[in-house]
Amino acid sequence: MTEEAYAKANGLSPRDVVKRFAASGTLRCPGGASSAQVTGARDVITTVAHAFRDLCKPHTSPEQCIFEYYLGAERRAIPLSAALWMGSCVDSAPRQGSADWAVARLAFPADVTPYEIHEQPETLVELEHVLAVVGYDIEATGKTDKDGPFNKTIQECQIRDVRDWQTFETNCEFEFGASGSALFRLWGRRMTMLGVVFGDYHDKSYCPLAAASSRAGSGRACL
């Protein structure tokens, strides 16, 4: 759903929905684009490690990347600083999604409300409802830019296979660019981020599965 469709389906104000999900945006690096979001603080973003590196190859300098988001109808861009933290690379285990996370610092704060990080001790259970917010959806119609169709989309879906306390699959439907997107748990009216979406384009049998890592953490991923 677009933000407008999500607002209508849930009886919410479109303006409130746009404001709530303003933290989701696009991370653009020399190798492509992926989803990312402002998390925890206004100058911090979370995404996937493969937005910056291909397996254990040297990673792209974050200073070559920018984070784009929308403030109302205005598109804003913020360069990244040199600070970058990522999960350990594992060449021999491409399915190890728990390592496919990245936290980067922006050169200056974004004018949005950061997403809250999930801190509840309860583990996820199968069929539990979650919310996925994709910052860069190449299949969506709507806003366009020099790199093709671009629009933020929202999905209400369910947890499927819970592999361990930090890795699980969902029945969400993702496309290229969705890697790094945020997944949320809803606690009444409170929405907390519990992980980021990742996919593995090296393993063709694994690619169709939608998965997420709750460690926090590109168009390369097939999801």
Chain-wise SSE layout:
Blueprint: H1 3-9, H2 14-20, E1 24-29, E2 32-38, E3 44-47, E4 66-71, E5 74-86, E6 102-106, E7 116-117, E8 129-134, E9 144-145, E10 148-149, E11 153-164, E12 167-170, E13 182-187, E14 190-198, E15 210-213
Helix pairs in contact: 1-2
Q: Strand content of the residues, in percent? A: 35-45%
- How far is the first residue's CA from the last residue's CA? 17 Å
Determine the structural class based on helices, strands and strand pairing: mainly beta
| Major sheet size, sense and barrel closure | 6 strands, antiparallel, barrel
- List the uncertain runs: 201-211, 214-223
C-alpha geometry? globular
Radius of gyration: 16 Å
> Mean pLDDT, rounded to whole units?
77
Give helix % range. under 10%
- The main sheet orders its strands as 1-2-3-6-5-4
Order of helices and strands: HHEEEEEEEEEEEEEEE
Q: What is the β-strand count?
A: 15
Helix count?
Answer: 2
Brief characterization of the structure:
With 223 residues, the chain is mainly beta. The protein is built from two helices and 15 strands. The two termini are 17 Å apart.
Structural description of this entry:
With 223 residues, this protein is mainly β. Helix content is 6%, strand content 39%. The protein is built from two helices and 15 strands. Strands 1-2-3-6-5-4 form a six-stranded antiparallel β-barrel. A six-stranded antiparallel β-barrel has the order 8-11-12-15-14-13. It has a two-stranded antiparallel ribbon with strand order 9-10. A hairpin with a 2-residue loop joins strand 1 (24-29) and strand 2. Helix 1 crosses helix 2. The longest helix is centred in the N-terminal third of the chain and has 7 residues, at 3-9. The protein is globular, with a radius of gyration of 16 Å.
